[in-house]
Amino acid sequence: MPANADDTSLESWLTAQQEAWPDGVLMLSAAPEHRILRYNRHFQELWALSEEALRDDQRLVVEILSQVADPSEVERHFRAAKKQPAEPHRFRIVHEDGRSFDVRIQPVVSSSGELFARLFIFRDISNHLLAARELHESEERYRLLVEHSPDMVAVHVRGRFVFLNAAGARMLGAATPEELYGRRVLDFVHPDYVPQVEARVRDMTDRAQLAPLLEERFVALDGSQIDVEVIGVPITFEGMPGVQVIARNISKRKRAEALVRHMATEDSLTGLPNRHLFHERLHHALSQAHHRSRCLAILFLDLDRFKNINDTLGHEIGDRLLQLIAERLQGCLKSGDFCARIGGDEFSIILPHIQDSQEAAAVAHRIQQALAEPFTVPGHELYVTASIGITQYPADGEEPSHLIKNADTAMYRAKAERNTYRIYSPTMNETALERLSLESLLHKAIERDEFIIHYQPQVDLHSGSIVGAEALIRWHQPELGLISPAKFIPLAEETGLIMPITDLVLRKACHQVKEWHRAGTPVRRMAVNLSGLYFKQREVTQAIADVLAEYDLPASCLELELTESIFMEDRDTTLTTLRTLRAMGVRVSIDDFGTGYSSLSYLQRFPIGMLKIDQSFVREISSASDDAAIVQTIILLAHSLGMRVIAEGVETEEQRAFLTALGCDEIQGYLISRPVSAEHFQRLLRADAEAAAS
Question: Which of 207, 526, 592, 627 could serve as a FRET partner for 188 with CA atoms 20 to 30 Å apart?
Answer without folding.
Answer: 207
